[in-house]
Amino acid sequence: MTSELLLDPQLKYWVLLPISVVMVVVGLLRSNLTYYLTSSKKLPEIKISRERQFLQRAVNFRENNRMISKHSFDQRQKYYLEKLNSNEFIAESEANNEPATNPLADPKMNEQMMGMLKGNMMNYIPQTLVMGWINYFFPGFVIMKLPFTLTTGFKQMLQSDVMTPDLNVRYVSAISWYFINFMGLKPVYSLLVGSESAEELMAQQHQQQQMNFTGPGGPKADRLFKGEAENIQILSHVAVFDDIIDRVLKIDI
């Protein structure tokens, strides 16, 4: 039989609620400080999104052109070759117009790396302080019992820092509650600052900083467009519907 505990009702006021409030406040403060400390100049999202979507459309045409007729293929091939070889769908930026240079000698690259370093520091330092605060004041605390049953596979996730192998898996330790908040505060952020800002907060919190293909250090958009234009130019079209009647009649039933 698994052990059962009688929890003090005051735990939710003096441990559970403070940890949750501190996690939310730290997340909001970190977001605002990161915004003011990083000075990255980004293109309007609509231009970058337009650029990516058009390139994806060209890729989809190249990979799935067998589903259209020869006439439609010729029209689309001509259209994509014309647009991919022009700058109409390329988001204008200094990075696209400058020649390739050594990233380590590029002052703009150094500035961007410094901005990323500041962002990483604003992510790690507050979370390290919060975790240290919880480990110092609430070591080994069991602060709540979940109102639903769970399998033993959740025991390691919910009962970190609690050395009781026979304890019911529904009990949650203080440090585990920190990790649960760390991973699942998106609905709270959505309620407080809106869904778009919540997405940005969670992206910062989980270190999902991905550079788009127009940024320094990665392939330039004009190169990707020209490469895709070359791929489309050498396409040979064979539609799956060509001679479909004859091929169906030849099938042995």
TrEMBL record:
GO biological process, one term: protein folding in endoplasmic reticulum
Cellular component per GO, a single term: EMC complex
InterPro entries: EMC3 (IPR008568), EMC3/TMCO1 (IPR002809)
Keywords from the UniProt entry: Membrane, Transmembrane, Transmembrane helix
Regions that span the bilayer: 13-33, 124-148, 168-185
Record bears the keyword Transmembrane: yes
Membrane topology label: Multi-pass membrane protein
Subcellular localization(s) per the UniProt record: Membrane
SMART domains: DUF106 (SM01415)
Protein's UniProt keywords contain Ribonucleoprotein: no
Domain of life of the source: Eukaryota
Known function: The EMC seems to be required for efficient folding of proteins in the endoplasmic reticulum (ER).
Family: Belongs to the EMC3 family.
Entry protein name: ER membrane protein complex subunit 3
Provenance organism: Scheffersomyces spartinae
Gene coding for it: EMC3
